[in-house]
Design brief:
alpha/beta, FAD/NAD(P)-binding domain, Enolase-like, domain 1, 3 domains, 7-stranded mixed beta sheet, FAD, nucleotide-binding
Length: 475
């Protein structure tokens, strides 16, 4: 078998597998190497996102949301549920099946596009004439040679100092997705995306959840009008978020954990829980890659150094996704993967960081694209604002979910949309409209003049755009 390739992609997460497929579509001979295996020992492409991140967390969020709807909201629709119970084992089995289906889907796409897949840990060996040698540690070790290399090795969870994950009591997102029974008390360290989503899952199922966040403000990366509305909703749900909590020590035993911390007033406090989820961020993953063998430069964070087009310091080696600068988002990695494959083929790959959406899949959902009001203030940029609440939207009232609002920020001179921020039902879907609008440099007036179907949640975007000019029709 010829082990020489036009492109070798290291990593089969969202960035890597998409890069491999796009390169193959462009006529290149492509290999993709990924080390992930399922518990049954079978290959599990899809990276963190598919195996222990985006996909399984959304499966559990959906299951837990269904349970909460049945428990607390079905009665208002005239639906009687009787003795309601959650079978956690069945919920986890469903989650695992969702993950497995995605694994198998990626392997199918590799076969369809003639991408040769190798399941093992890839390491650079050396530069050779016309490319680079990559060894794959697997059941049967192989050596590959690629003219071009795309590094897409993703990221790893960041642990607290001196507190290793045992995935029984001290949990990463991996263990938090596999808790066998609903804990009575659950602590979460970090009120970011992962902490809020996983905290929400187990809070809905009956756990008493407390989230400790070291920062003094809630979701500082989110537009603060949106963050404030979300915090009100979480407080109402009894998802407790304590801000300004500086963790000093965590004592963990098989029986549970005691977290010692300083609160926002400087007072020493302790929190006892059955389990703790540590969700304090992620770090770039280059474990086993052996970048020194080819002179690949890493920064002080351990990320691969790249330019605006994802070129590394070594000609012929590229890097994308979580292992480089920029937001650690699956869809950002996908866009970079496509762009790099097209650049290798001599085309002009394109990624616009200004129109990459962000989503937090809590209830209410939080989604945004573009700049926040606080960013515009810091930059000294003038702006106008229009907002519209879901409580004034007919479809939201029919759904029985009127929490939140849509906020549109526009340039006062050109009226171009600078940012759109949503907290409320199906925000993750609604934000796509804003991404499209901003990609085409739409003005708020452009959106205000478009006919939206009625009744729909999407009408809130039109009404918020109308509100920029202070002429909302339904509020």
């Amino acid at each position: 078998m010829d082990m020489h390739f036009d492109v070798i992609v290291i990593g089969a997460g969202p960035g890597g597998y998409i890069a491999a497929i796009r390169a193959a579509q462009l006529g290149m001979k492509v290999a993709c190497v990924d080390a992930w295996k399922n518990k049954d020992g079978k290959p599990a492409p899809g990276g963190t996102c598919n195996n222990i991140g985006c996909i399984p967390s959304k499966a559990l969020l959906q299951s837990s949301e269904n349970f909460e709807q049945a428990k607390h909201h079905f009665g208002s629709h005239g639906i009687s549920t009787g003795d309601l119970r959650m079978d956690v084992t069945t919920m986890l089995e469903r989650k695992n099946q969702v993950v497995k289906s995605s694994n198998e889907g990626i392997l199918y796409l590799f076969r369809k596009n003639k991408v040769q897949f190798f399941n093992g840990l890839a390491s650079f060996t050396r530069a050779v004439d016309g490319g680079f040698e990559v060894s794959v540690a697997a059941d049967e070790a192989v050596t590959l040679v690629g003219k071009q290399i795309i590094v897409a090795t993703g990221s790893n969870v960041r642990p607290l100092p001196n507190l290793p994950f045992d995935e029984r009591v001290v949990l990463s997102n991996d263990g938090a997705l596999d808790i066998a029974a609903v804990p009575d008390r659950l602590a979460v360290i970090g009120a970011g995306v992962i902490g809020l989503e996983l905290g929400s899952v187990w809070r809905r199922l009956g756990a008493d959840v407390t989230i400790l966040e070291g920062l003094p403000s809630f979701l500082p990366i989110v537009d603060q009008a949106i963050a404030k509305e979300a915090k009100k909703a979480f407080d109402k749900q009894n998802l407790k978020v304590e801000l300004g909590a500086k963790v000093r020590e965590v004592n963990a035993t098989e029986a549970g954990v005691t977290i010692h911390y300083t609160d926002s007033q400087g007072q020493t406090q302790s929190l006892q829980a059955d389990k703790v989820i540590v969700a304090i961020g992620r770090v770039p993953n280059t474990e086993g890659l052996n970048p020194a063998a080819v002179g690949l430069q890493l920064d002080e964070r351990g990320a691969v150094v790249v330019d605006d087009e994802c070129r590394t310091n070594v000609p012929g080696i590229w890097a994308i996704g979580d292992v480089v600068r920029g937001p650690m988002l699956a869809h950002k990695a996908e866009e970079e993967g496509v762009a790099v494959a097209e650049r290798i083929a001599g085309q002009h790959g394109h990624v616009d960081f200004n129109t990459i959406p962000n989503v937090i899949y809590t209830s209410p959902e939080i989604a945004w694209v573009g700049r926040t009001e606080q960013q515009l203030k810091e930059q000294g940029t003038a702006y106008r604002i229009g907002s519209f609440p879901f409580m004034a939207n007919g479809r939201a009232r029919a759904l029985g979910d009127t929490t939140g609002l849509v906020k549109v920020i526009a340039d006062p001179a050109t009226d171009e949309i600078l940012g759109v921020h949503v907290v409320g039902p199906q925000a993750s879907e609604l934000v796509a409209e804003a991404v499209i609008a901003m990609a085409f440099k739409a003005s708020s007036e452009d959106i205000a003049r478009i006919c939206f179907a009625h009744p729909t949640l999407s009408e809130t975007f039109k009404e918020a755009s109308l509100a920029v000019d202070k002429r909302a029709l339904n509020f």
